[in-house]
Amino acid sequence: LQTVMAGKEEKEPMNFVHKNAILCETVTKENRTQKLYTNYSVNPFKTLHVIAGKPNSKYDSEDGDEDPHFKKIIERANQEPTKKFAFPQTEAQEIGWVTRPLLEKDRSDRRLNFPHQMSAMTKYMETFWRIEEAKKINTDANTSS
Fold first, then answer.
1. What pLDDT is stored for residue 99 in this prediction?
2. pTM > 0.70: yes or no
């Protein structure tokens, strides 16, 4: 009960039974949603720094069995995103996610294929530039010898 005395409200003193009940209810709610995780492993997204041991120590150079689970996690972390995931995980990954063409190119279809065609003038100029390049290479070889 709260009593009003001269415009001021006085609060009832703290009831330790109610305080303990609130604490018990909070703990039971936390325990219901808490998940105990005891399977620890290496974070594959953190860079792993390996420090070499002493060169003459026989204990540092002993090789142990490799952990296949750890190896699989590290290999998966080092893959590119298109091999890790079926779909892009961010908006930025959507650009360039599908790199193969939607339609296969049919070179025999004249409607869609326009190959490079040379006219008489372009054939003449290509031959001219080849001869000029050959002359330049020959003069450079003769001057350096």
1. 78
2. no
